[in-house]
């Protein structure tokens, strides 16, 4: 369990959330880790704050490269054997990384693992006991872990707010597809390619983290619904779905049907290069 985990966090303003996220990682992470921050043009003092964080690499973009582009940039800079994509509006909890890493190491067929949370899509969403403060949230997370230790399930997809995987997965399926800009469906696409490569997904019910939800989009005045439709159109075309983008946004889709139809990962068709200076540290 001594291997390094590279925690990749994208920022675009939202300093308050970023600070809370970083401080929670620092407080509740005992395994070796490094921060990789990718800033997509913040103007609220975020960069100045990130420069004070210990054990961190800060990559500053003058333009917004989007979630997929920023994550790929962070992956290229990562030194860890484990890579973790973490939204800057997440507050982690006690034993969070030990819990996620434990599942990934327990079953080598697991390609990606994620926690349960609030303010996420239903597949990973639970209804927590009401809490008003982050201290109360930590108390709930502790109790939740004790009640659900060793529990989890195989979801059809995982949400990109907190995803852990081995660096080797990137070598097999590539990075995130930067056509999904600035964000939305890149995590669906990434999970599909992992499944087609023979890996399974795992939702760790014994790891709870707090997620504020769409904080970056809200802070930067981005219209989530409009962007969802745009990326839904890209997604349906890429995977030859018969439903319209509007239907896809309203009713969703069954990832397993796509896996059954496509059957296997084809590197020539499905591998996504990491972009500029492709390669792993």
Short descriptors:
12 helices, nine-stranded mixed beta sheet, 281 residues, globular, alpha/beta, Spore Coat Polysaccharide Biosynthesis Protein SpsA, Chain A
Give a nutshell description of this structure.
The chain is an alpha/beta fold. It has helices at residues 15-28, 46-50, 66-77, 96-106, 134-148, 167-173, 186-196, 215-219, 224-238, 245-251, 255-262, 267-270, and strands at 5-11, 33-40, 56-61, 82-86, 90-91, 110-117, 152-153, 162-166, 200-211.
Commentary on this structure:
The mean pLDDT is 94. Helices cover 41% and strands 20% of the residues. The protein has one domain (5-270): Spore Coat Polysaccharide Biosynthesis Protein SpsA, Chain A (Alpha-Beta Complex), CATH 3.90.550. Helix 1 (15-28) links the parallel strand 1 (5-11) and strand 2. By secondary structure, the protein is an alpha/beta fold. Helix 7 packs across helix 11 and helix 9 (224-238) crosses helix 10 (245-251). Strands 1, 2, 3, 4, 5, 6, 7, 8 and 9 form a nine-stranded mixed beta sheet that branches.
Task: Give helix and strand order, one letter per element, not per position.
Answer: EHEHEHEEHEHEEHHEHHHHH
Largest sheet data:
9 strands, mixed
Oligomer: single chain
Please work out how many helical segments DSSP would assign. 12
Indicate the overall shape. globular
Terminal Cα span = 20 Å
Mean pLDDT: 94
């Amino acid at each position: 369990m001594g291997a390094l985990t590279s925690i990749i966090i994208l920022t675009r303003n939202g300093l308050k959330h970023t600070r809370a996220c970083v401080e929670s990682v620092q407080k509740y992470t005992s395994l070796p880790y490094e921060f990789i921050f990718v800033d997509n043009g913040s103007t609220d003092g975020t960069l100045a704050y990130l420069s004070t964080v210990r054990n961190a690499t800060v990559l500053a973009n003058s333009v917004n490269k989007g979630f997929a582009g920023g994550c790929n940039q962070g992956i290229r800079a990562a030194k860890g054997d484990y890579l973790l994509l973490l939204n800057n509006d997440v507050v982690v909890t006690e034993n969070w990384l030990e819990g996620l890493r434990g599942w990934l190491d327990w079953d080598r067929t697991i390609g990606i693992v994620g926690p349960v949370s609030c303010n996420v899509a239903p597949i990973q969403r639970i209804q927590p006991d009401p809490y008003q403060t982050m201290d109360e949230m930590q108390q709930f997370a502790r109790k939740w872990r004790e009640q659900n230790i060793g529990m989890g399930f195989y979801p059809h997809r995982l949400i990109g707010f907190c995803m852990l995987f081995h660096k080797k997965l990137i070598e097999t399926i590539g990075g995130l597809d930067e056509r999904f800009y600035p964000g939305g469906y890149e995590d669906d696409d990434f999970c599909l390619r992992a499944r087609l490569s023979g890996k399974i997904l795992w939702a760790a019910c014994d790891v709870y983290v707090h997620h504020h939800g769409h904080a970056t989009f809200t802070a930067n005045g981005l219209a989530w619904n409009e962007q969802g439709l745009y990326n839904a159109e890209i997604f349906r075309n890429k995977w030859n779905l018969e439903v319209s983008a509007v239907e896809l946004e309203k009713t969703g889709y069954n990832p397993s049907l796509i896996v059954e139809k496509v059957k296997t990962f084809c590197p020539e068709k499905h591998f996504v290069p990491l972009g500029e200076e492709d390669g792993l540290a």
